[in-house]
Specification:
With about 180 residues, the protein is mostly beta strands. The protein contains two helices and twelve strands. The strands form two sheets. The chain has a seven-stranded antiparallel beta sheet, with no helix packed on it. Strand 2 and strand 3 form a beta hairpin.
Length: about 180
């Protein structure tokens, strides 16, 4: 009888290992990133963060269609995933009608655009002094904006953020409710 118990143990251990590796959301992975929203100006705004399939997904519920979030990776050893996806919708559940303005700001990078400039947003870098951004864009950032039935979806390549440990994202919906 003891041989049957021992033969089942490796199978159970293997099953637990496989389940932990195939889980789409690992709590320790999500803890490597933190999301902060300014609750003083818009106490109803909230955000949720998940990590799945090499994507950091941020679901934002905005009360007015104008907002700001701060996203930070836990340590310098933590890298950004392949893609950071931000989905913005109103608290009522409807998506933003239009993304009039999008600003992504880090310590060394500034990107500005809208849905109309999806895939080719203006990207600025710090000047030699390291205190302000240059006047003209240095290149185009491949941030994509896709309106869906549920939300305005913004796809940010993780490679774009590689030198940043924290970023700030601001948005403005043209047709605010």
């Amino acid at each position: 009888m003891s041989t049957k118990i021992h033969s089942r143990f490796p199978l159970a251990a293997l099953l637990l290992i496989v389940l932990s590796l195939t889980s789409p959301l690992n709590a320790s992975d999500v803890e490597r990133y933190s999301l902060t929203m300014d609750k003083t100006k818009k106490p109803g705004d909230r955000g949720e963060i998940t990590l799945a399939d090499e994507q950091l997904q941020i679901q934002i519920f905005s009360s007015t269609g104008i907002g700001k979030l701060k996203l930070q990776r836990g340590t310098t050893e933590t890298s950004w995933p392949k893609t950071v996806v931000v989905k913005i919708q109103y608290i009522t559940g409807k998506p933003l009608a239009e993304l009039e303005g999008l600003t992504l700001r880090g310590k060394a990078i500034l990107v500005q655009g809208s849905r109309r400039t999806s895939g080719a947003m203006d990207q600025f870098i710090l000047t030699d002094q390291g205190t302000k951004f240059q006047n003209l864009p240095s290149q185009k950032a491949k941030i994509r904006v896709l309106p869906t039935k549920e939300a305005m979806q913004i796809e940010i390549p993780g490679k774009l953020l590689s030198d940043e440990t924290k970023i700030e994202i601001q948005w403005i919906d043209y047709y605010r409710s």
